UniProtKB/TrEMBL annotation:
This is GTPase HflX. Mg(2+) binds at S290, T310. Residues 277-442 form the Hflx-type G domain. Keywords: Cytoplasm, GTP-binding, Magnesium, Metal-binding, Nucleotide-binding. GTPase that associates with the 50S ribosomal subunit and may have a role during protein synthesis or ribosome biogenesis. The gene is hflX. PANTHER family: GTP-BINDING PROTEIN 6-RELATED, GTP-BINDING PROTEIN HFLX. Residues 213-230 have a biased composition (Gly residues). Residues 1-38, 210-239 are annotated as: Disordered. Its cofactor is Mg(2+).
Amino acid sequence: MTNSRHLVHQSDTHEEERYRVDPRYGVEAEPDGDDYDGEQLDLADRQSLRRVVGLSTELEDVSEVEYRQLRLERVVLVGVWNTGTAAEAEASLRELAALAETAGSQVLDGVIQRRERPDPSTYIGSGKARELRDVVASTGADTVICDGELTPAQLIHLEDVVKVKVVDRTALILDIFAQHARSREGKAQVALAQMQYMLPRLRGWGQSLSRQMGGGGSGGSGAGGGGGIATRGPGETKIELDRRRIREKMARTRRELAEMGKSRSTQRQERKRGAVPAVALAGYTNAGKSSLLNRLTGAGVLVEDALFATLDPTVRRAQSSSGRAFTIADTVGFVRHLPHLLIDAFRSTLEEVADADLLLHVVDVSDPDPEGQIAAVREVLQEIGAEKVPEIVVLNKADAADPQTVARMLRREPHAVLVSARTGEGVDKLFAAIEADLPRPAVEVDALVPYGRGDLVARVHSTGELLSETHLETGTRIVARVDATLAAALGEFAAA
Ligand SMILES: Nc1nc2c(ncn2[C@@H]2O[C@H](COP(=O)(O)OP(=O)(O)OP(=O)(O)O)[C@@H](O)[C@H]2O)c(=O)[nH]1
Ligand SMILES: [Mg+2]
């Protein structure tokens, strides 16, 4: 079907979805009597869904179409369990609860349903949806959060039954990211993901446009079911405008991000040219990446017992035990079912990880299911093309971990180092492991450097791998592995 208003109008009685328009337009979509009777809320009920416009200030000027704001809500969680064990389903819902709390919500209750696959219409099926409505009513919740990604139609149908707003995991994670983004790049990345999320949902609402005239919102021109060009009302123009403005803003944001990505990659190239190896921290959210960065470098990076505390990559300099310099980058944490549009939006940040010489994959070993976290992180690593980067598994929070879990993890991940960023335990071993795994500079040199060229000796110390150093009468005899640039600089002093 084409995108034409006209066609949409003609076929809209067959559409499954219902459509909404911001009540402030005065053109709240009218139920189409034929199709939607039983499920339709009346206008008052609809408005009692307490819709709030705009997910973040960033988006407010983009679109005035309604959006499901999450902050400070009283929520009930609902999950559909179709694979894995009951314990896994529960763990997933507990994580959803932690995410909801991170977003500022108060979790009142959680419901899990076993189904082959989510119900195409209401996600949990109509019977369960009615049960959920009772839970919502008895707890006084104002929001339901589903542990998955729902289609716009599922969200709307479920809302009609439970009579409060329904959001999905993707929207929740987007909201957390929006609250936490600080840098210009981070904000732009989140805004892009939010706009992408909104666009298909806008289309649904936009399709009610043909009813807007008949709905009386624009002064009752009386077009009724007539259709055709004449039915295009101001509301329609407005939605079209919103949609176009979102697309334009998305294009603009993409261009800005591309620019920022370019300067980030230039910086990275420069670091590369300086032959300073790049180490990146990666891992599940709340695993302790920022704490570890602070331990390794003394950097004052925000540490918080919250999911997704870090969204902006921080790059710091550090030194291995033998004095070799390397950079170390903190990054955004990963989570199960990280929305794809976020991975896309954060691609340039995540390139920091894919381009690293060495990954420190930080795992919270005090978690009941560290294996699940590792699997989720590796899935994302693969998606961003970082699966070939050498990796050290860092089992963090040793101080709080169950010894049996630790033993199990050490057996499972032989190339792992057990540490506690909190107590400092194991950090020396981690430094030694990093040292051993840093890429070896390419060229072996043997040079007699005159005492006047202490700068070259210092460069060998900080960027090369020193094999031997002897102080002779005429200068310092150095045998070392260094990168090509430094090898060239040392060329004129090559020992015979
Ligand atoms: N007991 C214990 N707690 C730790 C340790 N390391 C970090 N934590 C705590 O774990 C929580 C998360 O730490 P962060 O360093 O913010 O974790 P992160 O991986 O950077 O998290 P995000 O940026 O949110 O993805 C904080 O409350 C830390 O104090 C540790 O070794 N032991
Ligand atoms: Mg962090």
